[in-house]
Structure formats: structure tokens, C-alpha cells
């Protein structure tokens, strides 16, 4: 117990680091995922191809390899940014592939007739999309997006091993100070649980509000 | 940047993609024409992007001979091969052990004895909710285990727990009448499971199991972080060698396609099995959702979305 109380600052810093990483990466992943999903359902062949390649490659890339390439590789490429920005970039791009697939399958759950009905009422493409298709897609997409973001929060642990300030990385500081390593890890685990449970509770709430009744 | 000439892929956006039928009508001649123009523009932009990246690579001297000579040496090739072998070794052991642990935990969760059920539920939920890396580090740092066993143990605990859920949902997805009929014939629970439910569930579960193995294969690269001498570790050794002018980017360019290729092959195999199963009338009734990361929150189990 005293591992936590006497090192509250270290833990809090790590915890906030993980939260920040998760929030920024989630924002990037949602944005990129949305762009890629719209590419993948676009009527333009080359955009569809780009979206497909993006998803296929990133989904099959080990995250450690991506971190390795981005955090250690890009600087030699002439691109120098803070490690945390690189980590957000890697995590966001990686997760965007999963978000894209979730959104795409969400759009596909909307029955064809909905779009046809909208068009036969004389709605424009923008109206069909924003008033009819997307609201329905959004509702069925809440749970898979939620579990993808939970996965993101857990994956952010890898950033710690690449010397980005985050929760898992705190073990190093504390073990150098000679604290009980088992308790150190127990409190790290608790920290992660708090984060994943919060995301999960948030998405459960959202689902209760807007989810599809099946 | 000069506008690129149209290539084969920009010339055929004749109809909207098959899946998203709610979004588009079948385009008429004018829309097709417009789509072709969009196609040209986006192809040009994408080619410009690729060109810019290539320019950056050349500009920073990534294709100079000194950066690529190391790959001609036998020692370097052997180092990489050994790394690849170690990656596959960790993957193989972790895959087998995960399947065994998954089967055990699933049996526990389906047990008629409440304490067994509770215990396995607790284990499954806890290990699904933890980041794999935290477990691997815990085993490596706190329990002072060697890198390979630590990596394998971490992967086994995580993937075994996820697979347990796959197995359980597979058995539960078999039509209820099947189990009832078997009980009505006087079979005992073990017999019902092993003769009736599991064989039917196994076929349907196969794609989800293989998808989870892709996750395990990807996660073997975490071994790099605990100094297990796997593929990425071998790459790092070469990349940070001053004698070879620190060939970091070349190493990434050699290692990534191999890593991604292996995972893609396995993913593609899962996909292929799933497609074959869908055509098979015997497994049509049972459909297993892909596993998802756990959160320890009861009742809030959303479907789909794999973890990486």
C-alpha cells in the first residue's frame, strides 16, 4: 500500500500520461478511421484501393514493429518530433484500421431500402447520408468502437517501453527506488483497470441512450 | 508535381462497391464520368504522396550502397533468420499452450459446479482486461523469469483467456435442441459435450481461433521489449551498427514486409476458412463472433472488434 501513497506523484504522472495518450490517439484514430471508412465505401476506385491497403497493412502490423519504425525510424528520416507525438501517431494510425472496419460494417448494417426510400423522397446524397444512413450506422457502431478504444488504451502500454511517460513505465522508476515490485505492478494494473472500466462504462451509457434495440 | 497518367485502377469505378448499397444508386453515364474524374484526381494525389516519400528516402540517402551491403553478409542473414526462427518458436509454443489453456478455462466456465465456474470466470475476465505487456513485464521483472518463458506465459494467459470465450460462445451457439436431444438419449454431460456439442462448435469456431492466433503472432514482437532475441531484436542489432552507417530505414524496409506478410497470410487463411464455412450447410446455423478485449465490467460485452 505504501508504494502508492509515497509515490503518488509518479503514479499520477504515469496515469495521466496513459490517459493523454489514449485520448489523443483515440481522437486521431476516430478521425482517420472515419476518413478511411468513407474511402472504402466511396464510388472512386483508387480511394477504395487506398483504404483497403491501409486497413490490410495496419491490421496485420505488429504494434511493436510500428512503434519501432515510427519512434526510432522517422527521426533518421529527417523528421524530429517529441516521442509522445510519435506514439500518438503510431497508436492512432494502427487503431484507425480497426475503427474503419467497425464503421464500415456499421454502414453495411443499414438496410438498402433505407437509402432507396430516402432517395425516392428526393433527398440529396448529403441528406441521405447525414439524416438517414449515418444516424442508424452510428447506433450499431457504438459497441465495436468502444471495444476498439479499450484495446487502444491497453495497447498504449507499449509506448512506455519506448520511453514515453505512461503508466507501465512507472515500474522502472519505482524498482530503481527499491520498492516492492509486486505491489508496484498491482497498482499499475489497478490504474489500467480504472481507465478501461471508465471507457467501457462510458460506451455502455452511450449504448443505453442510442443503441439499437435488438 | 506532374499529373500522373491514368493507370488501370482508375479506369474502372463503374459501379459503387457491392457492400454499401444504402449509399448509392447504380450510377448513370454522367455520374460515371464524374467518378472517373474523381478517380484521376485521387490517383494523382496518391501518386504524389508516394513520390514525396520516395523523394524523402532518396534525399536522406537511404538507398546508398553502404546502407544495404550488410544484408549481403552471411552473418547478418543468419542473424535475421535466427530471429525469425525465435519469433516462430515463441508463436508456436504460445499458440499450443493458449489453445490448451483456452480449452481448460472454457470447460471451467461451462462447468455445473459454481465455484469452478466463478474461478474460471474471474481468471478469464482478469487476464482479458489487462494489457498483455503488463503481464509480460510482471512475469519478466517481478518473477525474474527468462525472456522466452515470460513472453510465452504472457501471451498464453491473454490469448488463452480470449480463446476460452471463443470456445464458450461456440458451444453455446450450437442449437439448443442438439444438447437437449443428447440429454434425452440418456447421455451424461461429458458425453453430450464431447460427442455432440464440441464437434459441431469446433468447425464454426475455426475462423475465430485462427484470427486470435494472428493476434498472438503479432504480439510475439513484444518479446523485443524484454530482450528476447526475436526478429525485431535482430533488426535492431543491425540497425544500430555504426559499421554499416546505421541502416535503420533499410532494416525496417526488410523486416516489415516479412512480419506483415506472415500475419497477412494467417489472416487470409482465417478469412478463407470462414468463407468456406459459410458455404457449408452443416455449419450455417452457428456463427461465432470474433473475440473482443475484456473490461471486467459485467454485462457490458459488446460484439466484434478484434484486438491487436
UniProtKB/TrEMBL annotation, chain A:
Domain of life: Bacteria
Alphabetical list of InterPro entries matching this protein: AA_ABC_transptr_permease_3TM, ArtM/GltK/GlnP/TcyL/YhdX-like, MetI-like, MetI-like_sf
Domain ABC transmembrane type-1 positions: 15-203
Single Gene Ontology MF annotation: transmembrane transporter activity
Topological relation to the membrane, as annotated: Multi-pass membrane protein
Broad class of the protein's primary localization: membrane
Keyword Transmembrane carried by entry: yes
Transmembrane regions listed in the UniProt entry: 21-41, 53-74, 80-100, 181-205
Gene3D superfamilies (alphabetical): MetI-like (1.10.3720.10)
Keywords of the record: Amino-acid transport, Cell membrane, Membrane, Transmembrane, Transmembrane helix, Transport
Entries under SUPFAM superfamilies matching the protein: MetI-like
Pfam families documented for this protein: BPD_transp_1 (PF00528)
Cellular localization per UniProt: Cell membrane
GO cellular component assignments: ATP-binding cassette (ABC) transporter complex
GO biological-process terms attached to the record: amino acid transport
Entries under PROSITE patterns matching the protein: ABC_TM1
PANTHER family linked: AMINO-ACID ABC TRANSPORTER PERMEASE PROTEIN YHDX-RELATED (PTHR30614:SF37), MEMBRANE COMPONENT OF AMINO ACID ABC TRANSPORTER (PTHR30614)
Family to which the UniProt record says this protein belongs: Belongs to the binding-protein-dependent transport system permease family. HisMQ subfamily.
The protein's name: Amino acid ABC transporter permease
Phylogenetic lineage: Bacteria, Bacillati, Actinomycetota, Actinomycetes, Kitasatosporales
Amino acid at each position: 500500500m505504501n508504494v502508492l501513497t509515497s509515490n503518488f506523484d509518479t503514479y499520477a504522472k504515469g496515469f495521466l500520461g496513459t490517459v493523454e495518450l489514449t485520448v489523443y490517439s483515440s481522437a486521431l484514430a476516430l478521425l482517420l478511421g472515419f476518413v478511411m471508412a468513407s474511402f472504402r465505401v466511396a464510388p472512386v476506385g483508387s480511394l477504395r484501393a487506398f483504404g483497403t491497403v491501409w486497413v490490410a497493412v495496419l491490421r496485420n502490423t505488429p504494434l511493436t514493429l510500428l512503434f519501432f519504425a515510427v519512434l526510432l525510424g522517422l527521426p533518421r528520416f529527417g523528421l524530429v518530433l517529441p516521442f509522445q507525438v510519435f506514439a500518438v501517431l503510431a497508436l492512432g494510425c494502427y487503431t484507425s484500421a480497426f475503427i474503419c472496419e467497425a464503421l464500415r460494417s456499421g454502414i453495411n448494417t443499414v438496410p438498402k431500402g433505407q437509402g432507396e426510400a430516402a432517395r425516392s423522397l428526393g433527398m440529396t446524397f448529403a441528406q441521405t447520408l447525414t439524416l438517414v444512413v449515418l444516424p442508424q450506422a452510428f447506433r450499431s457502431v457504438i459497441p465495436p468502437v468502444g471495444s476498439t478504444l479499450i484495446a487502444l488504451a491497453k495497447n498504449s502500454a507499449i509506448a512506455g517501453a519506448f520511453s514515453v511517460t505512461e503508466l507501465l513505465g512507472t515500474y522502472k522508476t519505482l524498482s530503481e527506488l527499491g520498492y516492492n515490485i509486486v505491489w508496484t505492478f498491482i497498482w499499475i494494473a489497478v490504474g489500467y483497470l480504472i481507465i478501461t472500466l471508465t471507457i467501457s462504462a462510458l460506451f455502455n451509457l452511450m449504448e443505453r441512450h442510442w443503441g439499437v434495440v435488438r | 508535381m506532374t499529373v500522373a497518367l491514368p493507370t488501370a485502377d482508375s479506369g474502372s469505378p463503374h459501379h459503387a462497391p457491392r457492400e454499401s448499397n444504402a449509399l448509392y444508386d447504380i450510377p448513370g453515364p454522367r455520374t460515371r464520368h464524374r467518378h472517373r474524374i474523381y478517380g484521376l484526381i485521387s490517383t494523382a494525389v496518391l501518386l504524389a504522396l508516394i513520390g514525396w516519400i520516395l523523394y524523402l528516402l532518396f534525399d536522406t540517402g537511404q538507398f546508398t550502397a553502404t546502407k544495404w551491403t550488410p544484408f549481403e553478409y552471411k552473418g547478418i542473414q543468419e542473424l535475421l533468420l535466427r530471429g525469425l526462427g525465435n519469433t516462430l518458436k515463441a508463436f508456436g509454443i504460445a499458440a499450443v499452450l493458449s489453445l490448451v489453456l483456452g480449452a481448460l478455462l472454457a470447460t471451467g466456465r461451462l462447468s455445473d459446479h459454481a465455484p469452478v465456474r466463478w474461478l474460471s470466470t474471474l481468471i478469464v475476465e482478469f487476464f482479458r482486461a489487462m494489457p498483455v505487456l503488463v503481464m509480460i513485464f510482471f512475469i519478466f521483472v517481478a518473477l525474474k523469469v527468462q525472456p522466452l518463458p515470460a513472453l510465452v506465459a504472457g501471451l498464453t494467459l491473454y490469448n488463452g483467456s480470449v480463446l476460452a470465450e471463443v470456445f464458450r460462445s461456440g458451444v453455446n451457439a450450437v442449437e439448443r435442441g442438439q444438447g437437449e436431444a443428447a440429454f434425452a438419449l440418456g447421455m451424461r454431460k461429458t458425453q453430450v459435450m464431447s460427442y455432440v456439442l464440441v464437434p459441431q462448435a469446433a468447425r464454426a469456431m475455426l475462423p475465430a481461433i485462427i484470427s486470435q492466433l494472428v493476434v498472438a503472432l503479432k504480439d510475439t514482437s513484444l518479446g523485443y521489449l524484454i530482450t528476447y532475441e526475436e526478429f525485431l531484436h535482430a533488426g535492431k542489432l543491425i540497425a544500430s551498427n555504426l559499421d554499416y552507417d546505421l541502416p535503420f530505414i533499410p532494416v525496417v524496409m526488410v523486416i516489415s514486409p516479412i512480419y506483415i506478410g506472415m500475419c497477412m497470410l494467417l489472416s487470409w487463411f482465417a478469412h478463407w476458412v470462414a468463407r468456406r464455412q459459410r458455404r457449408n450447410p452443416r455449419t450455417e446455423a452457428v456463427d461465432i463472433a470474433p473475440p473482443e478485449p475484456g473490461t471486467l465490467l459485467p454485462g457490458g460485452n459488446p460484439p466484434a472488434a478484434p484486438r491487436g
